[in-house]
Amino acid sequence: MGKTALAKRICDGRTGDEAIYLPHCSPVKELLCSLLMECWRRGVWELPDGAESDEASVEKKVRRFDQKAALTQAVKALQNAGKSQKPVVIIDEFEGASASVVRACRHLAPHATLIVCGASEKPGQRPFLFGFEKIEVARLSKSESEELATRLLGEFQIAEGERGALLRHVVEAAQGLPRVIHELVSRAAKRGDVSLRGVRREEVHGHTTVDMTPALIIGACFLLALRYAVRGLGDADLPALAGISAAGFMVLRFYAYRMSRPQRAAN
Fold it and tell me: Are 19 and 56 members of one domain?
């Protein structure tokens, strides 16, 4: 839906430092450490007990904080950052935030303008979100998505036979995620294959999966060999067992592939 892009656009025109963007909101310690490191890079916070200047040393010490100490230092950092103007903190993927993350956000809220982006809110988050202003953004209509996708693909050289299929894929798969799809199409263009097949290949590029096919085949062969050893070569049920096993293997392999496909994250 473009929630992240929208949240960053809210900050356009503001003076002072750019907003602090935190892409991962869980676990809470990771959120607070990321916030402290961003404040350290902007020069509005320093370690309370040291004068380390290199980033690796500072991050190492920051990660040794317990949750309470990290939260205390994060509040202090935001107070320092807000001496001239209230800082803006954008927290993405908030639908996956735990209750401890939401509680931490309530402590940070008085000292910064928090913009949290998420596809939905979990029931466990609602008691902690009172006082926050909720803004719902409607999804693009089909016609709006088609218009956006047509403009998006206009800059690429695409074979006429592929254009229609690729356009349908972008509209159905993107659902208003122009930046993500644009990156996929751009990478496919660099490889010289701007087609539906090329874009789908880019969707799974870099997604590591473990192919269990060899292990399953070896296991099946072992079981068949064991059955031969126990019941002998005259086993009349073996062909039926082999057929059923092969069918089960193909079904398992199909669903294993479907489950291993990467899930698109809203940008």
Answer: yes
Does residue 133 have a pLDDT over 70?
Answer: yes
- The verdict on whether omega for the bond into residue 27 sits within 30 degrees of 0, i.e. cis, is yes
Residues 24 and 79 in one domain: yes
Total-model pTM = 0.54
**3-state secondary structure (DSSP) of residue 89:** strand
Hunting for tokens 């050289």 — which residue is that?
A: 157
In order, the DSSP letters of 142-186 are: HHHHHHHHHHHHTTS---HHHHHHHHHHHHHHHSS-HHHHHHHHH
pLDDT digits (tens, 9 = 90+) for 103-128: 899 899 999 988 888 877 777 777 77
Number of domains in the chain: 3
pLDDT confidence bin for 262, thresholds 50/70/90: very low
Query: Do 249 and 185 sit in the same domain of this protein?
Result: no
What φ, ψ does residue 116 adopt, rounded to 5°?
Answer: -110, 135
- Domain of residue 231: give its range: 213-260
Nearest to 79 by CA among 68, 87, 89, 70: 87
In a domain? residue 133: no
pLDDT score at 153:
76
Question: Do 30 and 81 fall within a single domain?
Answer: yes
- Tell me: do 118 and 165 sit in the same domain: no
For 79-107, what is each residue's pLDDT tens digit?
998 887 888 888 888 887 888 888 899 89
The CA-CA-CA angle for residues 6, 7, 8, to 5°, reads: 90
Domain membership flag for residue 136:
no
